[in-house]
Fold this sequence. Notes:
24% of the residues lie in helices and 27% in strands. It has helices at 42-49, 72-81, 97-104, 162-167, 173-181, 216-222, 239-245, 250-260, 280-287; strands spanning 4-10, 24-29, 32-36, 58-60, 88-93, 115-120, 124-127, 135-140, 148-153, 157-160, 183-185, 191-193, 198-201, 205-209, 227-231, 264-268, 293-296, 302-304. A seven-stranded mixed sheet has the order 6-5-4-3-2-1-18. Strands 7-8-9-14-15-16-17 form a seven-stranded mixed sheet. Zn(2+) 1 binds at residues 63, 65, 143, 211.
Amino acid sequence: MSVRELVVLGSASAVPTRTRNHNGYLLRWDGRGLLFDPGEGTQRQMAHAGVSAHDVDWICVTHFHGDHCLGVPGVVQRIARDGVAHPVDAAFPASGTEYWRRLRHAAVFRDTDVIRERPITGAAARLDTGDAPFTLTARRLSHPVEAYGYRLEEPDGVTMLRGELAARGIQGPLVRRLQQEGRVVAPDGRTVTREECSVPRPGQKVAFVMDTGLCDAVHELAAEVDLLVIESTFLAEDSALASEYGHLTAAQAGRVAADCGVRRLVLTHISERYGAEDEPRFAEQAAAAYSGDIVLVQDLDRVDVPPRRRAR
């Protein structure tokens, strides 16, 4: 059975707190794992969450501020120590290659050759995902240092309609052939096309947007996604600070979700300036603009990608 879920390994911003670790997000997708922004303590949080180095196929770093990358050394060394044999692709801004390599070789250890560097340049880039059941794109965000957001997309497909198949006598192996080849000859000699027996099925989409001010790239990443994981560092009354430091407020995250037709909004990257008593206000302020499903995450939460949209 396929699993599509977000495992929250950390949800703080620049300073971890007693209840929130530095960033860390593992997106599990049909047997593949994409680890976004492993901050300090990620290796230990993985143990608490019950996930291992073998679950990581991608390491995606948005930028090289410490709360988004200081966990790289531990994760890399755990990949080596645990003998992970499959390739692990590492995506990061090319402008931060020097920082990546310092982190990658931060201490003495028996190295691994499974990590493949995928530096990102330009305003937008499509990453080579090989035979993975998704595409992965990156877009440059608006932050004091170069930062990228990521968007994962499953290709669109079709849903076969049982009634239409039965009416044409298509069953068993013929159904798979019809899906793959687009047309088959029915038992009665008629040619049946895939379009006659199916409706379009939108592929599922997830966007990961960390440190940024509002910009076109935020909306491009978030457009029509099933799950939007987005920073909401500040509450509305601190919007001037958010603008000064290149961050979003919870209210802005809610407006993005509403404008972009997002199905489930995940708020994270919470500033240490706020106490537990303030946290309900993040979801409340996002909900002022967005009427959909809002999750203000806590460390070690698991958030499902919403069920597939019904075929039109």
